């Protein structure tokens, strides 16, 4: 690509290459091949790595993918399980037609929120507990139910937290407790065959 190519513009005046790159990135995010958990970092997901590796080689050499990204000259660690699960719940919400946001709330910084329209109070609030403090997540979900009448989803990453959450939240309505593996399976299914699910449930 020459300097002249890099300066080329589309009719709107925007840079042609930036437009192409942004569009390509958007498509890769939608297909689950790029992780967008960390602002400004483009990192391949497992699905992206599989696609690249299945493509054979680059320059006649085997493809080697390191599980790190680089942002502003600094090495960025791979996404935590917490961020990965948050992103999956954002993806699921978007696929189901919700307006989604993260790290938002007047009293608690809720992990993920789903809204039926952008300006309504959230209909669903998601908290992900990965070796954190369950009590904080309990309080966050109970607050959302009492103040927004929002359904709560608590995602836990180990059996001990799953059992503890079920014991402590057994009397709470509108709060669903799920294991991380369940979210992984739902995400995989809903990202590949939402049409089939809609044909079953009629929504």
Describe the fold and architecture.
This protein is α+β, with helices and mostly antiparallel strands. The chain is 44% helix and 21% strand. The protein is built from eight helices and eleven strands. It has a five-stranded mixed β-sheet, sandwiched between helices. It has a two-stranded antiparallel sheet with strand order 1-2. The model is unreliable at 56-68 (pLDDT under 50).
Q: Which structural class do the helices and strands define?
A: alpha+beta
Largest sheet descriptor? 5 strands, mixed
Number of helices: 8
Low-confidence blocks of residues: 56-68
> Roughly what percent helix?
40-55%
- Element-level helix/strand string: HHEEHEEEEHEEEHEHEHH
Query: Widest sheet: strand order?
Result: 7-8-9-10-11
The proportion of residues in beta strands is 15-25%
Care to count the β-strands? 11
What is the radius of gyration computed over CA atoms, rounded to a whole number of angstroms?
Answer: 20 Å
Question: What general form does the structure show?
Answer: elongated
Query: Could you tell me the mean pLDDT?
Result: 80
Quote the distance from N terminus to C terminus. Answer: 47 Å
Features:
8 helices; two-stranded antiparallel sheet; 21% strand; 5-stranded mixed beta sheet; alpha+beta; single chain; 203 residues
